[in-house]
Amino acid sequence: MKKKEIKNVFVDGAITPEHIAKSISNHQSKTQIGAHDIFLGQVRADVIDGKTVHAIEYSAYEEMANAKFHEIKEAAFKKYDLSCMHIYHSKGIIKTGEICLFVFVSSVHRKEVFEALHFIVDEIKIHVPIFGKELFKDDSYQWKVNT
After folding, report:
1. Does the residue 127 lie in any domain?
2. Of 26, 80, 108, 125, whose CB count within 10 A is highest?
């Protein structure tokens, strides 16, 4: 069996509504799919110690991160009966309100996509080496801790 190619999931800047809409539109011709589920991670304007986050600067060791994304995809395809899966993550400075993570899964039936999406997003948060620097309006910052 041929080994699947490790794809680059990183997008420079925010993931745009147009990118998301195009991904959805591209699946209309795949008539064996009966369900899709989407997760959109958005940068929040958290208030920490009286300071408001205005953006997060994402960085990663991309080769290692892409390998982890690939492992998560492979595990999800083995565990769930999925037809299709796409993952995109931003790098660089993403402002509050903008999308930084887009996960899109498809299957014949809805139960698979609901369960798979939950599994995939949790695995990303736990295992993928992506680093977020929370930027405050006063030009200070702190490293984000995933919860």
Report:
1. yes
2. 80
Query: Which residues constitute the domain of residue 44?
Result: 10-139
Residue with tokens 């949790």: 122
Write out the two tokens for 45.
Answer: 């304007």
pTM over the 0.85 mark: yes
User: Domains in the chain: how many in total?
Assistant: 1
CA dist 48 to 31, 54, 92, 134, Å?
47, 11, 21, 10
CATH of the domain at 78: 3.90.1170.40
Would you say residue 5 has pLDDT above 90?
Answer: no
Alpha-carbon distance of 84 to 3, in angstroms, equals: 17
Which tokens hold the place of 48?
A: 């920490």
**Residue 14 DSSP code:** P
- The beta strand positions in 9-124, using DSSP E, are 10-12, 35-42, 47-48, 51-60, 82-95, 99-107
User: Which tokens go with 61?
Assistant: 């060791």
